[in-house]
Every structure is written in structure tokens, then in C-alpha cells.
Target: Undecaprenol kinase/diacylglycerol kinase (ATP)
Amino acid sequence: MKQLLAKFSYAFRGVGLALKDKSVIVQVVIMLLALVFFSFFDLSLIEWCVLLMCCGMVIVAEMFNTVIERMMNFIHPECDDRVRDIKDFGAGVVLAASFFALLIGILIIGSKII
Ligand SMILES: Nc1ncnc2c1ncn2[C@@H]1O[C@H](COP(=O)(O)OP(=O)(O)OP(=O)(O)O)[C@@H](O)[C@H]1O
Model:
């Protein structure tokens, strides 16, 4: 039980670190603004669940991207095309997640407006 609690405390520390990262903070602020915007519409429970899942997908992608960036800065701080590819790949993951989240948001809000 003590070990399990310790593992949770490490994980919460990780979340705390993520919430201090500039890129993660930006995504969290965008997510909160989007949720405020969506609250003006009469959304069903399922629609809220889908939107929250999309927000979670983008935040988790950003957290993974930050992990990759920090890892690369630690193991290979020098300029290198391979590091560039890895970091751009990570940024691409966030972009792809954001694109699909935006698409789903537009579909849900579009269906309400129409
Ligand atoms: N060591 C490197 N070698 C080659 N290119 C790099 C290297 N580090 C970064 N880059 C390029 O610069 C871009 C930005 O990298 P950086 O690590 O500054 O990310 P960032 O998104 O600006 O992160 P943050 O602002 O959160 O620190 C990368 O996507 C990559 O194209």
C-alpha cells in the first residue's frame, strides 16, 4: 500500500512538472477557453464526453512531446538533424491530435448551429 501511494506521488509530481511547462500551460488554457465556449451550447452527456476526450488527447500529446524534448535536450544538446527530426515528429503528434480535436469540435458545434 505504501509503495502504491509512493508511485501515485511520483505520478502527481510528474503532472505538477507538466503544469509548469510553458507549452502544456498554453494547451491547458486553450482547453479551458474551449470548454467555456462549448458551455454556451446545449450539449448532451455523450458530446461532453467526446469533447473532454479530445481535450485529454491534446494535453497528453503535449505532455509526451515535452518529455521527448527534455529527453533529447538532456541526451543530445548539440545541434543534430536526427534530434531535429525527433523533435519535429513529436510536434507533429501534437498537431495531428489538435487537428482531429478541432475537427470534432467543429462537427459538434456545427450540428448544433444547423
Ligand atoms: N538539437 C537540435 N538539433 C537540430 N534541431 C533542433 C535541435 N533542437 C531543436 N531543434 C529544432 O528546433 C525546433 C524547436 O525546438 P525546441 O526544443 O526549442 O522546441 P520548442 O517547441 O520551441 O520547445 P519549448 O519552447 O517548449 O522549449 C525543433 O522542433 C527542431 O526543429
Observations:
- The helical segments are 2-18, 22-38, 45-75, 81-113.
